[in-house]
Amino acid sequence: MEVDDSGEVAEIKAAHFEESMKYARRSVSDRDITKYRAFAQTLQQSRGFGTEFRFPEQSKPAEAAAPTANASAAADER
Questions:
Q1: Which of 2, 6, 23, 50 could form a disulfide with 10 if both were Cys (CB 3.0 to 4.6 A apart)?
Q2: Is the Cβ–Cβ distance between 29 and 20 less than 8 Å?
Q3: Three-class secondary structure of residue 9 per DSSP
Q4: DSSP 8
Q5: What is 26-69 written as a DSSP string?
Q6: 73 or 27, greater pLDDT
Q7: What pTM did the predictor assign?
Q8: What are the CA-CA distances from residue 57 to residues 29, 31, 52, 60 (Å)?
Q9: Smallest Cα–Cα separation from 55: which of 44, 46, 66?
């Protein structure tokens, strides 16, 4: 590593990264990529669960804070 007179280490630049990538090799198999994609899809689907969570209405200030939710629910019932 290059060190200047102040004792600080030179910063890593894009050219350094590009040089190192010339010698990089793939370390993940096609099988592992397939497993990851299946896992990612399952995770994404499970994230949909619980997105409609709401606390039960307990006090009037909470009801006043969300009039649009109550109004849209009433409109859906019509």
A1: 2
A2: no
A3: strand
A4: P
A5: --S-HHHHHHHHHHHHHHHHHHTTTTT--PPP-SHHHHHH-HHH
A6: 27
A7: 0.35
A8: 51, 49, 14, 8
A9: 66
